[in-house]
Records
---
Amino acid sequence: MYKSQYIGGQKEKFVRLDDLDSTMSMSSDTAYIAPSSRVFGRGELVIDSSEIARRYLHRYFFVDLASVLPLPQIVVYRFLHGKSAESTGSFAESAWAGAAYYLLWFMLAAQVTGAAWYLLSVERYDTCWRDACIESGKCRVEFLYCGSEGMQGFSEWDKIRVDVLNQSCSTEGDEKPFNFGIFEGAISSNVISSTEFFSKFLFCLWWGLKNLRDFIFIGIGTLGLILFALLIGNIQTYLQSLTIRLEEMRIKRRDSEQWMHHRWLPQDLRERVRRYDQYKWLETRGVDEESIVQTLPKDLRRDIKRHLCLNLVRRVPLFTNMDERQVQYTFRFYSQQWRTWAACFIQTAWRHYRSKATEKQRREEEGGFGYSDGDDDDYGGGDDFKGGSGKPGLGATILASRFAANALRGHRRRSSSTRELMQLQKPPEPDFSTYND
C-alpha cells in the first residue's frame, strides 16, 4: 500500500496517509521514479500528471476502489436486516436490542463522517503547503513529495522549509495566516501528523459523533419550527373561518330582527325565533348541512341520515328494546322499495281477479244459448237438420257459434299472456337467524 510522506521539520517528521481514501486522492498526483531509469545510476523522477494518472489507473485504481467501497457495511446491513425480518420483529420486541441496533447505525454514520472530515483536513493542509511553497519563490511543488532530495534547488528549500511552513500554516495566535475552517482542530491537535492509528481513529470518531449530534439537533429544531409554523397557519385558518361564520350569523340575526320588527311580530314569537336560531347555531356551527348532504350519493345520504336520526328513533318505546339489525330491517320493510312492490302486487292480484270475473260472466252468458239432450235428434238426421230444401238447421248454427266463441277465447288468452308484464320481484325478507347476538 502506498504511503505518502511529507517532510515537516529537521527531524524528518512525516505525515502518513494510512486511509485508502487519502491514497486514492493523492496517488493520482504523486510523482514516481521511472522503472527504466533504475538500471543505470540515479532514477528519473516522473512529474507529468498525465503519466502519473495513467500509471495509477492501470495498476492500483481498481484495487483501491474495491477497498474504499463500504462492502463490509453492506454485508452487515443485509445480514442484520434479514435476521430481523426472519425473527418477525425481534428487535422491536426487545427494547435493549433495538437500541443497540440503532446505536450501531449511529456509530457507523459517525465513523463515516469522521473519516470524511479527516480526508478533507489532509486536503486542506496540503493546499496550505502548496500555497506556502509557491509564495516563497524558492520552492517547487515537486519538493513536497518523497524522493525529491536529489532534485536541483532542493538544498536551498531544505534550509528554509521549516520556517516557511510553520509560519504560513500555523494554527497558533489570533491572526492565522491561513484559514483552515472546520479543519483547524485536526491540525492543532496533531492528528494529521500523528502516526498512531488508534489516536486518529478515536479522535475522528469523537468528532463525527459530536458533529452528527449537532446535525441531528439542528434537523430536529428545523423540523419543529416548520411544524410549528404549519400549526399556526392551520389555527389561523380555523379562526378566520370561524370569524367569517360568526359574522354571517350576526348578519342573519340582524336581518331576522329587522324583519320581525317590520312585521310587528309579538314578543313570544320573537323569542321563539331567537331560540331557534341559537339552537341551530349550536348544532351546526353555521354549516349548511342540507346543501352538503344533497351533493352526496343516495346510499351515502341514507346512511348519514340513519346515523344522525338513530338516537332519536331509539327514544320511541317501540324501538327501544329492538336490536339494531331489527330496527334497520324494519325501516327497510317500510321503505319505498317495499311500498312499490306491494302496490304492484296488489295491482296484479286485482287484474287477475277481474279477468277471472269477466271470464265467468262470459261463460254464463254463453250457457244461456245451450240446448237440451232431446235435441240430439236434430244432429241425427232430423227434419230440422236435413230439411227438404237442404238448408242447415238450428243445431248446426249453435255448434258453429260455440266453436267461434271458444276459438276467440283461446286467442284472447294467448294475447293476454304475451302482453303480461313481468312482476316486480319481492325484496328479501330479513333473516335474523344468520346473525349472532
Note: DSSP finds 17 helices and two strands in the chain.
---
Amino acid sequence: MTRRNRPSSGAHSGAPFTGAFAPEPDDDEPKSKSQRKRDMHALQALGVELEALPKDRLARVPMPEPLAEAIHEARRITSHEGKRRQMQYVGRVMRGLDDDEVDAIRRALEGFKGTSKAETARLHLIERWREMLLRDDDALTRFLAEHPEVDVQALRNLIRGARKEQQLGKPPRHFRELFQAIKTALDAKDGQQPAAGANGIPAGNADDNDQPDQEP
C-alpha cells in the first residue's frame, strides 16, 4: 500500500511564519515607481521654497554646503531657462540628502511659516489700532491705558497730522509714522527692545511731529 506523504510543519512546510517566528519586515524594500516620483516632486518643491526665502532666513536653514551653493547659484541666475536648469540641479542635490538632513530643512521651513503667521497677525493689530486712533478720540485713552510709557503729546501730534493728511489728500508721512509709533509701543509692552525712543515715537521723528500742521 502506497503511503501518502504528510506535509511537515515549521520551516519545511512552506506555510507562512507567524507569531514570534515571523520574519522582520524588510525596511529596505524598494519603493514603487509612483512613490519615488512623489518623493522627487516633494524634494523639488522644498528646493523651490529654499530658493524663494529671504536671505536672512536662508542663512538659518541647516543644509550641506553643496546644497547651499546650488541654492545661492540659483538665486544669482536671472534668465528663466538658466534658473530652470539650476533648480533641476538643486532637486538632484536634494535627492542625495539623507532623511535627517531633509527633516531638518522641513522643520526650519515650518518654523518660518509659523513665524510669518504671528508677524501677520501683529501687523493687523497695529493697523487696527491706527484705524481706531484716527477714527475715535476715546481710542487714545484706551491705548494710553495699555501703554502708559508712550509720549502722549507726540502721539497726539501724529494723530492730528495723519488726520489732516487724509482730509487734504497729502502724502501720508504722519500716517506711516503713527504706524511705527504704535509698533514701538507694542514691542515695548512685549519686552522687545525697539530701535526707537522709549517714548513710543521712532527715533529722529519726534522733532518732525512737534509741528504737525505744517506741510510735510
Note: Residues 37 and 119 are 35 Å apart (CA to CA).
